[in-house]
Amino acid sequence: MTTSSCIKLYIPEMCCGAETALIEKAFKGSDLVKDIRFDTLARTALFTPANENVTAAMLITIIDSVGMQANEIRETILSEMAIRIERMQTDADVTQVLELVGLDCAVDKINRVVKFHTDAEHCFAILEKLQKAGFDAVVVASGKTDAAQTEGESIPWLRLGIALVFAAVAEAIELTHALPEWAIMACAAVAIVLAGFQTILKGFGFLLRLIFNMDTLMSVAVIGAVCLGAWPEAAMVMVLYEIGEAIEDMSMTRARNAIRKLMDVAPAEVTVKVGESWQRMKAEAVPAGSLYRIEPGERAALDGMVEDGTGSMDESMITGESMPAAKTVGSRVFAGALALESGLTVRATAAAADSMSARIIRAVEEAEQKKAPLQRFVDKFASRYTPAVFALAILTAVLGPIFSSEPWTVWIYRALVLLVISCPCALVISTPVTIVSAVSAAARRGVLIKGGVYLEAGRTLKNVCLDKTGTVTKGKPSLSNITLTSTVDKNRAMLLAASLAAMSSHPVSRAIAEHFAEENRSTLPVKNFKALPGSGTQGVIDGSLFFLTNLTWLNSRGSVTPDVTAAFDAAHAKGQTAVALSDMFGVVAVFAVADTLKSNSAQAIALMKKVGLTPWLLTGDNARAAEAIAQKVGIDNVKADLLPEHKLEVIEELESKAPTAMVGDGINDAPALSRARIGFAMGIKGADTAIEAADVAIMDDNIAKIAWFKKLSELTHSTLIQNIVFALGVKFCFMIAALAGYATMWMAVFADTGVCLIVVAWGLRLMRSAGKVDRMLSA
Question: 337 and 291 in one domain?
Fold first, then answer.
C-alpha cells in the first residue's frame, strides 16, 4: 500500500514512548490497521489501513478512547485556481468558458475571474483550451485547499510568563511572611491554573485509566505538594515544568524544520509557456512536461532538463557541492538551483510536489519513523520506566514511615520529589532530536539518509561493494573502436547498433548512440525492443532480429569465433568495455567503449580503507577490464561477469559474514541495493529505481562520502550513548538524594528540565557536525 493511501494523524499528547506504546496497545488485535509508524518529534502517526473502508474517523475514535486527541492531516495536490479572462464580458462568454473548463466553478463577472478546484495538469490543459478558443486566460492565484495541517502549536509565552510572576510572588510572600497564608495559596493557585491546568486534567484522566506518562507524574506531584501545604513549591514546579516543555518543543521544531528551511527555496511562481505565450503562474499549478524560463539570478522552480541556453547554476542546496555546475542542452536542473550568469529554458520533468528538493524534505521528515535500534530501545525502556517509577514512589510513601521514625508527610514529599526527577523526558526527546539533526547535517552535504536505522547501522559496516560504471567511473563512456567481423560495411553496422542503442539508457549504449548522433544521421525504427538484464538488448530492424550484447551472452549462444574473441580481448586489455552487434547468423561487429575514472575514485577508496571498510568491485564487465580499473583505484577484491542475480548472491554471501553496503546507480543494481545492509545510490546519475531502492542517496555522485557517512554514523551513535548515560546518571543520583531526603521539588524540577535542555542541545549540535566529521576523516 502506498503512502498516499495511508492515514496520517496529528496527536498532540504523543510525546514519548509511553504514549506510542499506549496507542499500539489500543490497536493490538484490531482489524483496522496493518502497521503504525510514529514520529514523536512531529507528534504524528502514519497508519496503514487494513482495507479501503477504514476511515480516519474510525482511528480517531480509538485514540480518543485512551484519552488522547487526534486530527487528520490531509495532503492532496488539489488546489483552488483563479483564472482571469479579460474577454469574458457577456453571459454567452461565461457559458462558453464554463463549458471549456468542465468543472464546478465560481464566477466573478465583475472582475472577470473564474475559480475552480483541480490539479496542476488539468489546470494547464484548461488554460490551453481557453487560449485556443480565443480567451486571454491568466492564472491570478492558486492555493492548496487540503494542505497539511499545521503540526506545531504556538508556545503561550505570555501565559507562562504571567504564571511565573504569580509563582515567584507566592514564593516571595512565604519567605517574607508579608501577607497571610491565603495570599500565598491564591497566587500559587493562579500560577498552577495558568501554567498547567490542562496538564493536570490530562494527567488525572490518564491516571484513572492506569496510564502512566509524564503528565501523570507531574499532576500527581503538583497536587500532592498542594495537599501537603507546599503551595509555592507546587506552583513553581508546575510553571518550570511547562516552560521546560515549551523550550523542548521549540528545540524539536527547530530540528524538524531545519532541513525544510534549507531545501525549500524554490520560487513560488514561474514563467511558463502556455500555447504561444509566456505566463507567470504558481509553480504548484505547472505539470511535468511544461516549458519554463529561468532568468539570471533566479532559482529554478521545478526539476527539469535544459532545452535551450548555456550557463552555470549553484546546486549546493541539493548536492552539497559549492562549485557551480555547468549547464548545456540536456543538462539536469534541480528545483531551487540558482542560475548565475545567463538564463535557461527548461522542460519540467516533475511537478513541484515531486521535485528532488521536495523528496529530500519528505525523506528527512520521515526519517524519524524508521527508528534506529537504540531509539527503539529508549522508547521501549521509557514505556516501562514510568510505571516502575510510579510504583517506586508509592512504595516510598507507604514503606518509608513503617521502617523509619520520620513522619509520613516527609516520605510522601520524598515520593513526590522522586516523581518529578524521574520523568523520562530527557531520554525520549534526545534520541529523535539527535537523529534528525544528523540527518539534516548529512542532507546539507548532499547525503540523503532515509531513516535513523540506516544512520546507526552505518558504523557497523565492514564491506562496501561498488558497481563500476557510474560509480567508480564517470559513467560517460565514449566509443573508441569498431571491429568488423562480417561482410557488413562499417556504416551499416554503426547504423544498426545505434538504432538498438538509442532505445537503452545503459551508459555503453548511450556512448554508441551519442557517437552516431554526432554524424547527424537518423536511426532506424526498432520493433519488439527488449532489454536483456545484465546482457544487453535486442530488437527487430528492417524485419531482422538483432542483438547488442556482451561476451557472456555470446558465449551462452555459442556465437563466438576467434576474430570476435580477439576483438574483445584487445578491448579488455585496455580496460575498455566491449559489446557485439549480432544477428541470427553470427557477430556483425564489436564496439569498444572506453570509460574514464572519476578524478577522486582512488582517494575515495583510500578513505574507505582508512575508516575500516573493505571495498569490492562488482561489475557485469569482463574480468580483465574490471581488474584494470580496480588496480588503478586500489581495489583488491574484484567480481566480474556478474548478472544482477549474481551481484545479489555476492551481497548475500558477504552479508552473512559481516555487515555489507552496496553502491550503484542503475536499474540492474536495485536488487542488490535492497538486499545489502545499507544501499547507496548515486543521486544525480542514478536511475529512479536505484534511488528508490537505496537507503542512502549521494546527491553529487562522490563516493568519498561513503567514508564520511560512516564517520557521521559513529559520531551520532556516540552522541546518543552520551545523552543516555548522562540523563540516566543524573536521574539516578537525584533519586538517591530524594530517598535520602537531600533533594527538594525545586531541585528536582531544575534537574529534570536542565537535563532535558542539555541533551537536546547536545543532540542539536550535530546539525553543524559536517566540519567535525571532515576533521575526523582527515585525522
Answer: yes
